[in-house]
Design a protein that fits this description.
Length: 390
């Protein structure tokens, strides 16, 4: 099958949606399918995958408590048209097609077997009210809709009054389960955090505030941090004696991330909101590391109300410290979470998730047709292609 995947976000900027698309594409290529991914890129030279085509440089916009780097407008529309025209796709899979992005452009100017995946979990926003009349006829063109969680599904219902089948984000469970720890990182009572620590909704400040209490209870505890961000800015409010307990590793690749998860005693996800799934939690479970996570809806659902990880009250630093201390000191509890998590994480392996997504593709292609461009612009389509003279 010839599959076209569209990423709304910059390919060379770390993010769960990009990782999901990359791994889904790799999974299908390994199965013998032909896959092409269209994505924005801030630096085209940073794209290492030969199945990825850059549509140009994105712009940064605030979205869902973060900064999204997306590409939109007449030039982007022209590039989307060229990619679709040359792709001869059997199915076009658009990620986050309800935000101004390449995915929305592709949805507006193509027809045929179109599939959309919705990742976001966000309250109604004024911007959504403004463009909802234009979004609805675009989204109606999708033959099938996927939401990565019940939280994302509910967001879709609230925003656009439509439904979707729930298929979670995928991971390579075996890759994380069989990774080797890094001897330089593997020490007793090590806490791990992975993410954009400068982004407030990731909750890194909450973890830092809890660190003082953890250090009092466990004097040789330490914190390993991986991900992009401004280190000096992040620790300026931390007492100097505590700073020596924190090691920043910067941005890490998948191999280093898997090794880090194998090297720590507890993984902490202190996110304060805006999450729809929590792919890092699935990866941590596959690695066998016990988890402490905030009780935001997405994490609470993924961990099944604490069955697969300890939950703490969102933004409550005292409760977070207490839960981390408890898990670090109770070896039997940590082992039980570790063993349960490894088994549960198999549900998110690409061998299962990829098959579920493929079934959606086959459903969308029930009439066995190709993806094509609209023969002429419809009234609502002009909003997204204005100025394009092709």
């Amino acid at each position: 099958m010839k599959i076209g995947l569209v990423s709304p976000y910059a390919w060379d900027v770390p993010g769960g949606v990009q990782a999901h698309i990359r791994d889904l594409a790799s999974h299908y290529i390994m199965q013998g399918h032909q896959v092409s991914v269209l994505a924005p890129a801030t630096d085209e030279s940073a794209i290492v995958e030969n199945f990825v085509i850059s549509a140009g440089r994105p712009v940064a916009i605030p979205y869902n408590g973060a900064v999204a780097r997306v590409l939109f407008g007449p030039v982007a529309s022209s590039r989307v048209r060229q990619w679709i025209a040359g792709g001869d796709f059997d199915v076009l899979h658009l990620h986050e097609p309800a935000i101004p992005s390449l995915s929305l452009l592709a949805c507006s100017i193509a027809e045929g077997p179109l599939v959309g995946t919705f990742h976001a979990a966000a309250p109604r926003q004024k911007a959504t009210f403004a463009i909802a009349p234009f979004l609805e006829p675009v989204i109606e063109k999708l033959r099938a809709r996927i939401a990565v969680s019940d939280i994302a599904r509910e967001t879709l219902r609230i925003h656009l009054d439509t439904d979707a089948v729930v298929i979670p984000n995928g991971i390579s469970a075996t890759f994380y389960e069989t990774a080797e720890p890094n001897p330089a990182w593997k020490k007793d009572f090590t806490i791990g955090f992975i993410g954009r620590f400068s982004e407030p909704r990731k909750g890194f400040d909450v973890l830092l505030e809890a660190l003082a209490r953890i250090a009092q209870a466990i004097p040789n505890s330490r914190l390993l941090v991986a991900g992009p961000g401004e280190v000096v800015e992040a620790i300026e409010g931390v007492d100097p004696p505590l700073r020596s307990r924190i090691t920043f590793l910067g941005r890490v690749d998948d191999d280093a991330k898997a090794s880090l998860l194998k090297s720590i005693n507890v993984y902490v996800a202190p996110n304060t909101g805006g999450e729809s799934f929590g792919i890092i939690l699935a990866e941590a479970m596959a690695s066998g590391v016990p988890i402490v996570a905030s009780d935001i809806p997405a994490f609470k659902q993924l961990l099944e109300d604490g069955k697969y990880g300890l939950l703490f009250e969102n933004e409550n630093t005292s409760d977070l410290a207490e839960k981390i201390i408890h898990l670090l000191q109770d070896e039997a509890l940590a082992k039980s979470y570790s063993e349960a998590g490894v088994e549960y994480a198999k549900r998110f392996d690409w061998s299962q998730v990829g098959e579920e997504v493929m079934n959606v593709y086959l459903h969308a292609r029930a009439e066995d047709e190709k993806v094509t461009l609209l023969s002429e612009a419809r009234p609502w389509s002009r909003l997204f292609t204005r100025g394009n003279k092709e």
